[in-house]
Amino acid sequence: MQVKSIKFKNQVCDIVANRRSVVVTFNERIAIFDACTLEDRLSVTTCYPSPGPNPNPVALGSRWLAYAEKKLMWQRSSGGAAGNTKTGNADSEGNTAQEENATFYESLPRLCVKYVC
Fold this sequence. Notes:
Layout: E1 14-17, E2 21-25, E3 30-34, E4 40-44, E5 58-60, E6 64-68, H1 90-107, E7 111-115
Antiparallel strand pairs: 1-2, 2-3, 3-4, 5-6, 6-7
């Protein structure tokens, strides 16, 4: 068995792994290593730092990595109902829900996916 040591200059925020990859996240960078050899496979430097508890949240699937891209597409919502609605009209309320749902998804930062196979 071989032991490998990897040293980083910056503080590690999180480590996630699957059978193929080990993903190490930093404040504004992601490093991806081969799970078997720990050799460097990919580095992502276009991450958007999150104000939440995890400064660089990622999601790792079996063949993909999702993260927040630095370029944001923000659309501020004032809340409430959008469109032509009348109380008691099920069709109109359904359309309003769809419009609000679309506005919600448009206001999220763009999610990037890298294939790590």
